[in-house]
Amino acid sequence: MKVKTILVSQPEPKVENSPYSRLVEKQKIKVDFRPFIHVEGVDAKEVRQQKIDLKDFTAIILTSRNAVDHFFRIAEEMRFKVPDTMKYFCQSEAVAYYLQKYVVYRKRKIYVGKRTFQELAPMIKKYKDEKFLLPSSDILKPIVPDTLDELKVNWQRAILFKTVISDLSDLSDVTYDILVFFSPSGIESLLKNFPDFKQNNTRIAVFGNTTQKAAAEAGLRIDIEAPTPDSPSMTMALERYIEKNNKK
Fold it and tell me: What sign has the CA pseudo-torsion 93, 94, 99, 104?
């Protein structure tokens, strides 16, 4: 079956000429964006209930831009002036670059991983005498705490924001040829919003093993997967699928 419409369960990319806009132009299809989940910050009172005192820490481990935003939000709410001596361990260059929104980059001690948390681990190990704070969502990949425990560093997790299912009731009468998911939470949101969802001819595209597993456990038929050796990105996987099916 030909593909004419795609719904991506994420916010629309803010960059001009994104891979999705190139896909639309090349394949002459319609792509809509709608976050199936969103993030809500927890308040200072809830953070205190976790027995978190920001002045106890000498280093911050930042795994996402959300973690950056909510750490500085809570610091402001708690009237905590982040000292210039604070060390920042950023999982990727994108997170480190985003940190500049809050700190003067050249005046801070910032350590940057390549992409995965495991790649950041050797840098954390070098500074094992620091007291590390890990700002996170209520959903955290096990690899993060497992790695920190293996390193035997002094660390504490602070849940500063929560992943919340978005209200999608306005989409109840709308159908798309392909639904694109990037997390198990996205699959959960689909089923919570539409408990009677019937897949029928709707194709499901998933990114990553955990999303693939969640979709399979939900009884969904998975038609498109990424990353793969042939399609390292979701847009590449979609393009290959569309080129194959729209020729028929």
Answer: positive
With H, G, I as helix, E, B as strand and everything else as coil, classify residue 209: helix
The full DSSP string for 89-136 is EESSHHHHHHHTTTS-GGGSEEEE-SSSHHHHHHHHHHTTTSEEEEEE
Domain count, the chain: 2
- pLDDT for 248: 61
Residue 32, classed as helix, strand or coil, is strand
pTM of structure: 0.79
Are 138 and 127 members of one domain? Answer: yes
* C-beta of residue 60 within 8 angstroms of C-beta of residue 71: yes
Which residue segment(s) compose the domain that 199 sits in? 5-36+166-245
In angstroms, the CA 23 to CA 233 distance is 12
